[in-house]
Each structure stands twice: as structure tokens, then as C-alpha cells.
Amino acid sequence: xxxxxxxxxxxxxxxxxxxxxxxxxxxxxxxxxxxxxxxxxxxxxxxxxxxxxxxxxxxxxxxxxxxxxxxxxxxxxxxxxxxxxxxxxxxxxxxxxxxxxxxxxxxxxxxxxxxxxxxxxxxxxxxxxxxxxxxxxxxxxxxxxxxxxxxxxxxxxxxxxxxxxxxxxxxxxxxxxxxxxxxxxxxxxxxxxxxxxxxxxxxxxxxxxxxxxxxxxxxxxxxxxxxxxxxxxxxxxxxxxxxxxxxxxxxxxxxxxxxxxxxxxxxxxxxxxxxxxxxxxxxxxxxxxxxxxxxxxxxxxxxxxxxxxxxxxxxxxxxxxxxxxx
Length: 326
Description:
With 326 residues, the protein is an alpha/beta fold. The protein has helices spanning 3-8, 10-27, 54-65, 77-91, 106-119, 146-161, 163-168, 201-222, 248-256, 264-267, 269-276, 304-318; strands spanning 45-49, 69-74, 96-100, 125-128, 172-177, 228-233, 287-288, 294-295.
């Protein structure tokens, strides 16, 4: 059925209305508010990737407001500097720093981690937030499919390179931003290098988010007894710029639904909850919903054997040497 005739069908209107009502209800279903959390982060150091806009920027703002030394890990110097200046002005916290990072490049990840290890005495919270969707299939010069490198393999390598610093700073937290869309993903290891192409942009994104949840579960298992926790979360359906790489029609539909979605500030709540809340202290290897409550991820996301297999292949592809990471 062609798009114009499909859109004119009465069922399309009803389904659209129901979807918008569900989005509206989900937007108001949260019960935890950052402003009610008393946690102070004076003397603590945090890193937030993808912190120049959207959820990442809101998370960084909240952590800086709590007096953390806040490192914004961003790909763009211009946008990152603007975000850092804005956060410093809004919070009065001078310890808001920009460090350049492109999670789609393993070389950039290694350079970033190396600088952190040279300059920082501690690391208390690592928020892996950076991600993208809608880009055409492409293989990077390092032999990795671009979306999978940016959303999954880059954060995997970054986390492992910073683990010793996190352990030395324990209790510490690792927070991985996933999505409810992980339930529609697959953990096809051949997608990581582009040996097989995902069927669509959507499948690529969904699959990276499944890998984020699997990675979190296996990471938590390996970190038992270290004082470092790792959790994944769903921010919900959030009004950000993540759809900027899609065509005009998809962007227009996304914009029309915008008033029914969460704002970036609202969508950041579950990330902030995992990063600072007293309620989440000591919890590890779990998946939190956009309402900041524990949720059950998909069956594939709970497959421990699949998580170990993904970890081993990720170690190989990122070149983690023996003794690095967990």
C-alpha cells in the first residue's frame, strides 16, 4: 500500500492516536525526580560520553550541579566547548572539562582513555551515552561497521581501558544507555565487521542496544567483588536530535510526535538514577526502565552464553591485550 493511501485509512489514524496516547502516558509515568535526590559528588570525577547535546548534556549538567569534576567526552570540539561553557555558567562549577572522543574510532578511544589515565586520579562514574542511528552502512578504516563501532564496540573498549581506575575509586558505577528497542535486535557477530549487513538502519540500532545490555550483564558478572557496578537502562522515547540522519519524512513524523515524547531532561532521569541514586547503590547487572524501576530485558538479553560469546569477539575486534579489562 502506498504511503498516501495508507495514511488516509481510518485504522492508521486510530493506531497513531493510540501510540501518541501511550507516549503521553509513558512521559508521565516516572516516579523518581533528580531534584529530590540529595547525593553530593564533591571530590568525585565523572565522564559522560556524547555530552554536548540531548540526554548526555542533561546528565552532565546534573552531575556538575552536584559538584562533580565532570568530563564531557564529545566528538565535536566546537559543540563540546559550547556545552561545557553553558554547564559551567548554569552550575557555577568550574571543573567541567571537554575531552575529545569519537567512539566510532578505536584509536580515538585509546587516545582518550590514555589521557584520562594520565591526568585523572580517580573515576567514580562512567556514563556510556554516545550513540547514533540512521547512517548508511559503512565499514571504518579499522574494519568495523560504523554504527556498531560507535554504539557498542567503542564503549566496550573505553570501559575496559578505564576499569582499573574505576576499581581503584570504588565504589564506582558504570551506566550504559540502552533502549527498549533492544528487544527487536539480534546479536549477530558478523554485523560488527560488516561481513553481514543489517536489514535496515533500525535493525542496526536495535542490535547495538541489545549488545549494550548483553555487555552490561557480562561486565557485571566479571566485576563481582570489585565495588564497581554496571547497569543498563532505557531512557524512553525522547525528543532529541538522534533522528537527524534520517530522511525528511521520518524527521517530520518524529517532530509531529515531539509534544507527546519526553524532553531530553525527562529522558535523562533513568541515567541519572543509575549514576547517583541511593536506591541504585550496590545493584549491578540489571536493566532499568524509563520509570527508573527494574525491568526485565528481552530473552536474548538474558542469555549468559550469548553475552560471553559477544564479549570474547569484542575483545578480539578491539585488540584488548591479555591482562587489560576484566
